[in-house]
């Protein structure tokens, strides 16, 4: 694994300036002093990883930055990327008592970033228990946040953990899928590197897709953790979907983040209204698209994107077309795309096309962002593990699946949530595994 | 319009208002004092004159607290570093332009009768309205046998005050140091010496901070520091206490110019309520400039209007009688904390303060149902915290999840489970919770007495409970 494989792209950096820039040292102290230091703080309770928020904030105010960062990392090994990528408005900052104090909530995300940036600047490595002090071997399949958190937690306590990632780079959606103005690919890789230095072994380019591959792992490891995420993005299933100029949102985001797509022009249509659709639409604007439409089959009030994401997209100049559905993609004589759309209305919970409402949008790119399907290849092999709607069923307290040697977490087990949810899942699974191993040893 | 003029302070000093600049950097020159009078200050105590000295640099350091600058200011500056002649010439000029603004000269010379006679004569010839004897500028001078040595020894204070009174034609104020075991002894010595009034308090001996990299305290003068004089908002409670002691002692009480941490009109009113005739300000001006006097004067007037006071004398000293000995307090007066659920924001600082720092009677059990009685029955802070840190929380990603999270509040702005409950049978009425609560009027202390007759510790000591002084550890 190399963290240098993606060069720092200055143009990309310029186009995708931080949506929440770092705090200056003085601003951080002023902001940390605003925190009331609540007891049993609601921000901590709201955080899926239960970071001791007042604890790390008050350490900033006293200048104990190392203590602050370790306090964060103790609860959330991906504290750095979560500081940037978390939808804090519906998590810690949303729970802040300041909302009821006639005041803005504490900028917890930015303070967390401040503590983590300071810690990373020192280059200090995290302490772990001696490797092998817990005699348990775990293979984490998938290299995203859930597996990173699970493996890191295991290594911290002296167990042996490896991460198997089918892509070239570790980090999962943290590396390939988060809008660049929130989290840079290099940030994600730096975090993976920190975890590698803790003693986690990474095997990238390692796809586990067959029953044989699983059986091999079963013979080598005591437990397997599934952090495989979700599968490919859903297809729109309309004619013309497979032509040039049509690429799904995750492909699109990964392309510009890894430098394969550096510029856009003309008109872009994003289909869907979730947070990924917003990320794609905003990115299209920043990459140079003149006009970006976001097409959604339902209305403004039904969109699943967070309110602040919606506001952000409007701010970026994205135009929203409500209650409109695409039914075909054709090519114009000039080589542009023609997206056939129709107005749809909800009647008895089904969407019916309105008569005479067809409209053709001439555009250069169509980016479907209508959700991911379950991760089919591996899941097919997991016959002893219960699935529900393609999602792995786990005990929420432990992450254990129906097969006692298999644990799971992250999107493949929660259906698709945030980085911080995946970290919480991975950490819980690691702790449960350690407990089982301890009991077996005793 | 309320009248905030000062009449006949210390016998003979009139002023347009009670807000005077204390002797210090803000009264160092005629140009400054004139600008201060233009800004609205009612008088000025000129920077201490006497023997010209050279002050070190740097000479200030401060205590910042919770992001606020200069909660307390420490100074190692001594008296004026300009010549006596220069000071008196400027003072004289200011008096010509501002005849109705009193200027008091702060004086400090060696402990010789002739030296004091000379300086008094020269200051009064320059046109001052009064004299303030700086026996108390605590720093530096004791090494030379003047200054605090006088202010800390009643006999010296009395003697030198008497020397000054032999010569002085204007009112003589003695400025008192807080760095003594009993300020009343010094105040009554000054009174015996013939002082017309007092100024209190001077700055408090202090070391504000030590640099954790160099191990040198601040201010760092070429590798060393020295004890300084502490002023600013932090010292106000100490000043009020000492002033109360002086003003409630008939042998010590004199017309008093109160000083020590006054930053705004509220502080000033408190000093007046303890009997001060005027107040003096230094640190607030060093921090924000002369303009701070505007709100001081307006605020005082508006407060007097609200209270129906026409002159300063209408309320001067009203609080002196409200301070009594501990042993005279009514032990049958009982209050308990009451939390206003509509105002509670759920920070739960009252819960942790009560459990860790008080009497374990504010509980987090609104939802599980009330459990009145013994502390042991309630979940303590570690259990409460453990519960939420082992709970499973997840990001509300769908609209339904977000709506559910937002609606889970019950009848109050804060979810019921986060609103603490006071067990009134256990509450000692200590008041700590109202102090830590960040919301005004959210926690109030409400009477819970049984209406039995007042009974103080002295009464009870006739029984068995109380003997002699209380333990205040």
Oligomer: heterodimer
Structural class of chain B: alpha/beta
Q: Give the overall shape of chain B, derived from the CA principal axes.
A: elongated
For the terminal residues of chain B, how far apart are their CA atoms?
48 Å
Count of alpha/pi helices of chain A? 18
Beta-strand content bin of chain B: 15-25%
Quote the average pLDDT of chain B.
91
Largest sheet of chain B: 8 strands, parallel, barrel
Brief digest:
The complex is a heterodimer of chains A (442) and B (473). Helix content of chain A is 38%, strand content 16%.
Task: Describe the secondary-structure layout.
The complex is a heterodimer of chains A (442) and B (473).
Chain A: H1 10-15, H2 25-34, H3 42-46, H4 53-62, H5 65-75, H6 79-85, H7 92-95, H8 108-122, E1 137-141, H9 145-156, E2 160-165, H10 173-176, H11 185-197, E3 201-204, H12 211-220, E4 223-226, H13 249-257, E5 267-271, H14 275-286, E6 291-295, H15 307-316, E7 319-321, E8 324-331, E9 337-347, E10 350-353, E11 359-363, E12 365-368, H16 376-379, E13 387-388, E14 391-392, E15 406-408, H17 411-414, H18 419-441
Parallel strand pairs in A: 1-2, 1-4, 2-3, 4-15, 5-6, 5-12, 6-7
Antiparallel strand pairs in A: 8-9, 9-10, 9-11, 13-14
Chain B: E1 6-9, E2 13-15, E3 19-21, H1 30-39, E4 43-50, E5 60-65, E6 68-75, H2 84-97, E7 103-108, H3 113-126, E8 130-134, H4 148-151, H5 154-167, E9 172-175, H6 183-192, E10 197-200, E11 204-206, E12 228-231, H7 236-247, E13 256-259, H8 265-273, E14 278-281, H9 283-288, H10 292-307, E15 335-339, H11 349-357, E16 362-363, H12 381-389, H13 399-407, E17 421-422, H14 432-436, E18 443-447, H15 457-461
Parallel strand pairs in B: 3-4, 3-14, 4-7, 7-8, 8-9, 9-10, 10-13, 13-14
Antiparallel strand pairs in B: 1-2, 5-6, 6-12, 11-12, 15-18, 16-17
Helix pairs in contact in B: 1-2, 3-5, 5-6, 8-10
Structure, explained:
The complex is a heterodimer of chains A (442) and B (473). Chain A has 442 residues and is α/β, with parallel strands linked by helices. Chain A folds into three domains: 19-122, Orthogonal Bundle (Fumarate Reductase Iron-sulfur Protein, Chain B, domain 2), CATH 1.10.1060; 137-231 and 373-441, FAD/NAD(P)-binding domain; 249-368, 3-Layer(bba) Sandwich (FAD/NAD(P)-binding domain), CATH 3.50.50.60. In chain A, 38% of the residues lie in helices and 16% in strands. Chain A is built from 18 helices and 15 strands. In chain A, strands 3-2-1-4-15 form a five-stranded parallel beta sheet, with helices on both faces. In chain A, helix 5 (65-75) crosses helix 8 (108-122). Chain A is globular. The mean pLDDT of chain A is 94. Chain B is α/β, with parallel strands linked by helices and 473 residues long. Chain B folds into two domains: 6-322, Alpha-Beta Barrel (TIM Barrel), CATH 3.20.20.70; 329-392 and 404-461, 2-Layer Sandwich (Alpha-Beta Plaits). In chain B, 31% of the residues lie in helices and 17% in strands. Chain B has 15 helices and 18 strands. Chain B has helices spanning 30-39, 84-97, 113-126, 148-151, 154-167, 183-192, 236-247, 265-273, 283-288, 292-307, 349-357, 381-389, 399-407, 432-436, 457-461; strands at 6-9, 13-15, 19-21, 43-50, 60-65, 68-75, 103-108, 130-134, 172-175, 197-200, 204-206, 228-231, 256-259, 278-281, 335-339, 362-363, 421-422, 443-447. An eight-stranded parallel barrel of chain B has the order 3-4-7-8-9-10-13-14, surrounded by eight helices. Chain B has a four-stranded antiparallel beta sheet with strand order 5-6-12-11, with no helix packed on it. Chain B is elongated, with a radius of gyration of 27 Å. Mean pLDDT of chain B is 91; it is low at 138-143 and 464-473. The A-B interface holds A 29-30, 33-34, 36-42, 44-48, 50, 61, 87, 90-91, 97-98, 100-101, 302, 304, 396-397, 414, 416-418, 420-421, 424, 428 and B 66-67, 345-349, 351-352, 364, 381, 384-385, 388-389, 391-399, 402, 405, 413-414, 418, 438-439.
